[in-house]
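Lecture 7 notes: from sequence to structure.

We start with a single chain of 112 residues. Read the sequence below before looking at the structure.
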Amino acid sequence: MELRTDNTSNLFTISDLKEVWAIANVYETDIAKSKQGSDVAVSTLSYPDKKFSGKVERISNIINPETNVMQVKIRLNNPDYTLKPGMFANISILFPGTEKKIDDSIQHGLIR
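Now the structure, written as tokens:
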């Protein structure tokens, strides 16, 4: 590839995948129940019998007008590099102080 000063696109991206992010869609009816710091359980299509745990790191302030969902960013430890960018998954956000949970089946790329 030719390196040019007028081309601002990245040649490559370096990432440390020991920690990854999951993006979950939360429906409007569950927005009030979604809290920063809530525990999260994640299962992937690739490893359906393995549960990954994480925490809600950030909650969006905007609802997507096309899908009527709000995005929640979840931090997951990935010490053995099992989770890969672009994986699909099911995410359960646990309600604080209860055994109830918000279930959210992700329809698009999960891990970033």
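Strands lie at 19-27, 39-44, 52-63, 69-77, 89-94, 101-105. Keep this in mind for problem set 3.
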